Amino acid sequence: MEQTIQQKVGKRIQEIRTKKNISQQDLASKCNFEKSNMSRLENGNANATLSTLEKVCNALEIDYIELFKF
């Protein structure tokens, strides 16, 4: 089954976070989110707003386009 864009973006967030050796808890804290919300985002179970994605990109120190390189 084809992954949704939510799932693809969530997987990218997880990949980038893991490459940078940042725990899910630390990323959630940097974004001012609950860890459970970060988990939902990474699993593709949350429909992130642009402002949410902006916070994640800032916390990961990446350009927005990185989230969509799948």
TrEMBL record:
<dbReference type="InterPro" id="IPR050807">
    <property type="entry name" value="TransReg_Diox_bact_type"/>
</dbReference>
<dbReference type="InterPro" id="IPR010982">
    <property type="entry name" value="Lambda_DNA-bd_dom_sf"/>
</dbReference>
<dbReference type="GO" id="GO:0003700">
    <property type="term" value="F:DNA-binding transcription factor activity"/>
</dbReference>
<dbReference type="InterPro" id="IPR001387">
    <property type="entry name" value="Cro/C1-type_HTH"/>
</dbReference>
<protein>
    <submittedName>
        <fullName>XRE family transcriptional regulator</fullName>
    </submittedName>
</protein>
<dbReference type="GO" id="GO:0005829">
    <property type="term" value="C:cytosol"/>
</dbReference>
<dbReference type="Pfam" id="PF13443">
    <property type="entry name" value="HTH_26"/>
</dbReference>
<dbReference type="GO" id="GO:0003677">
    <property type="term" value="F:DNA binding"/>
</dbReference>
<keyword id="KW-0238">DNA-binding</keyword>
<feature type="domain" description="HTH cro/C1-type">
    <location>
        <begin position="13"/>
        <end position="67"/>
    </location>
</feature>
